[in-house]
Amino acid sequence: MLYQGTHKIRSNFISIKQNDGEIINKFCKLKMRLLAKGSKISQDNHNNFISGNMPLNHLELDFCSPYSIGALIALYEHKIFTQSVIWGINPCDQPGVANKKQNMNATPI
Q1: Which residues 6+ apart lie within 8 Å of 21 measured at CB?
Q2: What's this model's pTM, rounded to 2 decimal places?
Q3: Distance CA 29, CA 20 (A)
Q4: Can you list the alpha helix ranges (DSSP code H) found in the chain?
Q5: Average pLDDT per 10 consecutive residues for the chain, totaling 109 residues
Q6: Residues 41 and 83 in one domain
Q7: Residues 28, 11: Cα–Cα separation, whole Å
Q8: In 3-state terms, what secondary structure has residue 60?
Q9: Domain encompassing residue 99
Q10: Are both 59 and 69 inside the same structural domain?
């Protein structure tokens, strides 16, 4: 979907510096390079073309620990809070949940 789709979708890649030589980080770097730079059209198969120019973020943790995972969660929580301030919405408001609760109490079983 990300490679051959027509929409630009922002992707987040998270890798761990401690595991730099492992195949999972090599795979992560390959995916980031393909999404950012794309690939050429192959003479054999035109379906292999990847346009590139996809927006992406890369976060690299020094090592995987409860502290670094907690910092990562705090980063995403702060992102949501900042977006809610910019957009003028309440990030803790869940009207769908409140609506279901009201309907559950009103509907006899």
Answers
A1: none
A2: 0.65
A3: 10
A4: 23-37, 66-87, 95-106
A5: 71 84 86 83 65 86 92 94 94 79 74
A6: no
A7: 12
A8: strand
A9: 65-109
A10: no
